[in-house]
Amino acid sequence: KLPKVVIIGRPNVGKSTLFNRLVGKRLALVDDQPGVTRDRRMGEAGLRGLEFEAVDTAGWENEDDASLPGRMRAQTQVSLKDADAALFVYDSRAGLTPLDEEIAQWLREQQVPVVLIANKAEGNAGQSGILEGYALGLGDPVPISAEHGEGVADIYNALSPHI
Ligand code: GDP
Ligand code: MG
Question: Is 10 in the pocket of ligand 1 (CB under 6 A)?
Answer without folding.
Answer: no
